[in-house]
């Protein structure tokens, strides 16, 4: 789930209630008179809406039989010979313990290859090393080795981040008290059932500058 930050501007507050009925009741009222340290503030209560977000599942399957190889050296030999040397090199491997090779797909232009082993789990030793030696004509070259993966998305959804339990307060007056004190006064006011409030789960108030708020769910 993508996290979408919400910009909380100066003299605004976000209140999340434990009961969504409390939040919806306050939103329907639209305006609310709050007593802040003997100062009367007429604040507007707005529904809280985030921008559009996305949800998806990312599935990654790592092959136990295939590895991808890059940085194959450019040598003046036929492609078939290079395929044979790659197959022999990984078949005789002591470091990766690969074993018998089923096939080698070699692309000379991109200097890459896909090695497929017969035995499942043969690639386990190779994916732990990023560089692997290739011996050709008495010289040692270093190949880059990567696991072969299948990546696909599932359950891709667009969603609109509307919180039924959260309200946005606007129009809070500038006060000499610090932010924490004002936040406490707002929380006390909206917790009282006599003010159409209820138990508050979280609250965030900012008097100067801006802050970014992210919701987990």
In total, how many beta strands?
Answer: 10
Low-confidence stretches: none
Q: How many distinct helices? A: 3
Main sheet makeup: 8 strands, antiparallel
Domains (count) = 2
The share of residues in extended strands comes to over 45%
Order of helix and strand elements from N to C terminus: EEHEEHEEEEHEE
Question: What general outline do the C-alpha atoms trace?
Answer: rod-shaped
Q: Terminal Cα separation, in Å?
A: 8 Å
Q: In which range does the helix fraction lie? A: 10-25%
What structural class should be given to the helix and strand makeup? alpha+beta
Give the mean pLDDT. Answer: 86
The rounded Rg comes to 31 Å
Question: What's the short story on this structure?
Answer:
This protein has 217 residues and is of the alpha+beta class.
How would you characterize the overall build of this protein?
- This protein is 17% helix and 50% strand.
- It is an alpha+beta fold.
- The chain has 2 domains: 3-52 and 159-216; 57-153, RRM (RNA recognition motif) domain (Alpha-Beta Plaits, 2-Layer Sandwich).
- The strands form 2 sheets. Strands 2, 3, 4, 5, 6, 7, 8 and 9 form an 8-stranded antiparallel β-sheet that branches. A two-stranded antiparallel sheet has the order 1-10.
- The chain is rod-shaped, with a radius of gyration of 31 Å.
- The mean pLDDT is 86.
Sum up the structure in keywords.
217 residues; alpha+beta; Alpha-Beta Plaits; 2 domains; 8-stranded antiparallel β-sheet; two-stranded antiparallel ribbon; 3 helices; 17% helix; rod-shaped; NMI protein; innate immunity; nucleus; Nmi/IFP35_dom
């Amino acid at each position: 789930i993508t996290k979408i930050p919400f910009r909380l501007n100066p003299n605004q507050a976000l209140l999340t209630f434990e009961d969504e009925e409390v939040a919806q009741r306050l939103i329907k009222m639209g305006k609310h008179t709050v007593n802040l340290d003997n100062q009367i503030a007429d604040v507007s209560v707005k529904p809280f809406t985030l921008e559009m977000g996305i949800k998806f599942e990312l599935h990654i399957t790592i092959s136990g039989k295939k590895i991808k190889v890059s940085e194959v050296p450019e040598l003046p030999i036929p492609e078939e010979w290079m395929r044979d040397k790659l197959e022999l090199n990984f078949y005789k491997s002591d470091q990766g313990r690969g074993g018998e090779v089923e096939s080698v797909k070699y692309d000379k232009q991109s200097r890459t290859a896909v090695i497929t082993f017969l035995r499942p789990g043969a690639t386990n030793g190779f994916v732990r090393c990023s560089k692997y030696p290739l011996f050709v004509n008495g010289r040692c070259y270093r190949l880059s080795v990567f696991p072969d993966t299948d990546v696909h998305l599932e359950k891709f959804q667009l969603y609109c981040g509307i919180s039924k339990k959260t309200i946005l307060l606007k129009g809070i007056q500038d006060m000499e008290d610090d932010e924490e004190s004002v936040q406490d006064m707002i929380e006390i006011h909206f917790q009282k059932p006599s003010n159409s409030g209820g138990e508050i789960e979280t609250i965030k108030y900012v008097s100067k500058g801006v802050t970014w708020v992210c919701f987990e769910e």
